[in-house]
# Entry
Amino acid sequence: MKINPDTRKGSALIVAVIFTAGLAAAIASYLTLSNGTTESSHRAFYRAAAFNLAESGVEHALWALHKDRVGESPWDEWTLQADGTRHFRIDGFTFAGGITGSVDISLLGDPYTPNAGGGVKVTAIGSIERRGKKELSGARILQADLQPSGGRGLFAYGMLARGHIRASGGARFDSWNSRGNGGFQSYRADLARDNVGVATVSDDLGAIQLGSSDIYGRASVGSESEFGLVMGWGGHLGPLNESDWDPEDLKDLWKVDGRKISYSTGAITTHFTAEFEEVIVPAELMPIATSPYVLPYHTQPYNRYVNRETLGAPGVDTVLMMDRMTIEADSTLEIAGNVTLIFPSENMTSLIIRGSGKIQLQEDATLVIYTGGNVDISGAGLLNHVAPEQLQIWGTASESQNIYLSGSGYLNGLIYAPNADLIVPGNTKIYGSVVANNITMSGSGSLHYDESLREYQGMGGSSGPLTVQHIREIMAKEEREPYLDLVANN
# Structure
């Protein structure tokens, strides 16, 4: 059979056309797939970018609340909505290809003040704009609940320092629970427990030096190494009852260097961190007049010697502000009701108690002291025989101050002075909790931590800086729409 050449040419042409059409279709499909993959990749990238923007919005809200807490108003550029919500937009974020981003922040709740106890809700919406239009379908919405960090309490440790803690002379650290029986009970040796915490955020080696002191509880250091703690011969760190120790902890270390550290019970921890809140006197407490206060003194016009005086009255709030107060000789300043003393001046000694002078609290009285200056307490000192929280010293110094607790007396109270150096010589006993910059105990004194203070924030004080307690991404369509409408309309 003879094949016509023209027929063969036609068949080849048809095959070529079919092949070309198939190739074109394949290329078109490939390009479509490629474009789709690229677009999908871009969307994934920008969704991640939008999430990062939302996270930055939550951080900005925390920053603004912190500024408000320390008295620097950040709200000038925020818009106050009718329902009390504050709104702020940050834009100008740029990405490759001319893509821009923004974050819308909504804050609902009373901005932080030193007495705020409530929480704040923050909603942050990160969105991307492409081709001149916001792509709200890809916006990421984060909602965070902020609560004061005081969930752990400002007095969660018996002794907490920014810098060093030095104890020599065989000091004792332990704890008791003043509310253990439902009502108040003073510290007694038979009530002693081993739940005291001694901690510093300093990462220096030897930041805590205990000599032969005994800590019946735990010690925490900011350093990476356990050598942030230094102990000498006879030192003890761990449970009160050695039957609770691991035998290895007792067997080896005691023979090596004469100290005992209960590693197996976690008595020492490293990489410790903590936040220290600057103390601000609540604005509503600031009176107008200031004057020195000295007792004893002579009254006029009869020039009669006075060695006892009472401040306040039962059931009454009394606030006094003055440059300084001195209690000396055998004088007694008695505190009745709820008394607040404010010493705003820095770089001076604001409160002096010396000789046989003393401040004494009535049974139901409270004394809260805010001081920017130094405190020098010796002799009979500050006396109260009830709960530590009834006597509080808050250091307001912006840079540095000193607090001296000398003599052989005791302090039954709380000290929160993150910029102060606390010096405790002699046989002074502290019942309560102390927070300071540096702490030095140079005698055979003791610290007895009241475990009931673990979540206590302090009268007239602050409940700690706001921190994120819970955060979630809003993903359900019905939940997202109200927030996206806010972005679209602003």
